[in-house]
């Protein structure tokens, strides 16, 4: 493939070669280079050191002169340092920059946005070459801010031509590869310079009050809990609706296992495979099936339309253990509760009776495998843990701008091209690199599920009473599909089959609309006025439905996305003709997006499939034109009046699932620390306690206990709101209405490996399960007349706050003393919490969010020591926690 270079770059290359003095510290062979060879390119990529450094987020320092106080900018620098002279100028370095570059502030380089976050650095006429040991600094201004060290994306790569003008194989710059910390298993970015200045680097705006979660901050935060292992004796997650402990009951040992009668299974019409997954978890802990074991007896509960079909009863006594349920899910949940009750060291449980049922029918987890692909095994492991904690919906996001991840029969281009990102500017073999994916397609962030893989996933989920909800985001977030179908178009045209070429084309080639999506694409939106778009969608849905049928779990819900549509149709001739024809009664170009959602939703309903979408897109529709059975996922921030849209869509009668970012986006950082992984546009501190504190039954009431992204209080006014004409624009839910469930979300833009995703999901998933299953006594009752909530109102009473604190004390101890060990046992790479610590008068005091986990400290270069109580130390001192099994370590913090 040929590459065209700027005239100035070619002239500069000639000048540098011709005019370089003969005296230099570099070998003459290097000075005499007149063009690149593959070996030269590889050598330079291995040698050059790259350092990415955030300078400032402060408006007065980062923005251009005359900028408004509300403008948000940052300054960053990239250093390139070679150990030898490399004076050739005909090269380009590609890299991912997730915030757009506003201006280059260095004379030697220019930066050009290629697409999305892919940018290209090239030298200017002022470039004098890379000189041995000297840093060439590229300084630039970016839009908005950078608040995390992980914003610096990996896998910069260099491209150049040989003497004949043929592009050489791109080379990844070795210093920009991610590495893995052997103690934490987390990705680290050695090229990203650590933040040191909280004000300049970690302050989002002049009003930002969020405090960097250094050890002294964590110490205060962790003081809300204390170690009390006795609280875990009869504890389980999620908390049951009713639990009665037999007083002075003798513990029952399961060392000999459990004994399940085959005849008993026949008597209650229960198949062993229906509960096999739950039994497998017991076996991993150490409790196997054995004829010498404690009898586990199953009994049928009658179906009752007024009660949850997932309800169960668990009776543990000296003679046997009895699980009563109405269906397989109830029996499985009873076994899961037994696993959670079990002391992993003694394998004992106490006599008790539990009557339990879930708060919500929808208890979900969403996983994005499109931005960065995640393996089939990761999904299977996730399904195991979802079942263990009684979650029942897997929302699998497999189609977006950065990748299409499911094989579709008859449309091979979707995975042949759309599942891969590589350096192919023509996008005939793959789509462009994004998110630091690098130039090659054979990396783990690329990939897809074959039809067989997907069938296996569904079967695995079905055996665990989990429904799989597939999602290919449309009409926005569809660049991978659009580019794949363009390749199909060219392939068909090359065969002179124009009809086939146009069958599934997704964009109007004559659309001149200028737009930019949230992720900075200008070509990622399906044209909703083209019939070929609907043929494509129908084809995809039909083929996915077939896979569900083959797996034995009919496709009941399909999520179309419908969010963040940039509006790429204003200047589309096809859309203008569509409006003029009035064929579907659409006479306004601004309504075609809603028309798309309504049409696809009804297409799904006609197939017996419930349509689902994200709340922003769903809010644009006319509910009268939507199927009565539609689902909306509420992804609006509570602090930005997200409760209003949730209530409006619940009032539509739709299945309303809370997915609010500041509490349910598990790709956000755990703590306010720039070393924590994840995006942070909704919050920079989303730890397990925050998820636990969620009051899903009264969204606005959370304003009494939460702060916004900048640590500021906010108000939630849930009273009826009227516009100037007296029309109600928002208000409370109708009497008797409620939401139908909650769902955790993982978006994968910054999460490259399976281990990193597990780190972000766990243990927050356990708190998701707690809130989805159990309604706590401390939740503020919803007021259907409407009310105002803020930090000074007192709906969340002192008594409720005390009840919340007591329950968190129990759950925190349960996690540290009991539950995390079971995640270790399953091989889950959960986050080991960072340690709180202070040094006063030479005495180190330390604590942890989950009492029961071991804390270690280190003085200077001395070996790590176990921390048991306050101890005299000499600075500097580091602290860290250790996983429940004593192997993996948490991130080390320095105690100032």
From TrEMBL:
Enzymatic reactions: Hydrolysis of terminal non-reducing N-acetyl-D-hexosamine residues in N-acetyl-beta-D-hexosaminides
Enzyme Commission code: 3.2.1.52
Residues making up the signal peptide according to the UniProt record: 1-18
Sorted UniProt keywords: Glycosidase, Hydrolase, Signal
Chitobiase/beta-hexosaminidases N-terminal domain mapped to chain residues: 46-217
Entry keyword Protease: no
Compositional bias of kind Basic and acidic residues: 716-726
InterPro entries the record matches: Beta_hexosaminidase_sua/sub (IPR025705), CBM2/CBM3_carb-bd_dom_sf (IPR008965), CBM2_carb-bd_dom_sf (IPR012291), CHB/HEX_N_dom (IPR004866), CHB_C_dom (IPR004867), GH (IPR017853), Glyco_hydro_20_cat (IPR015883), Hex-like_dom2 (IPR029018)
Pfam families: CHB_HEX, CHB_HEX_C, Glyco_hydro_20, Glyco_hydro_20b
SUPFAM superfamilies membership: (Trans)glycosidases, beta-N-acetylhexosaminidase-like domain, Carbohydrate-binding domain, E set domains
Chain positions covered by the region annotation Disordered: 715-737
Homology family: Belongs to the glycosyl hydrolase 20 family.
Record-given protein name: beta-N-acetylhexosaminidase
Species, as recorded: Shewanella vesiculosa
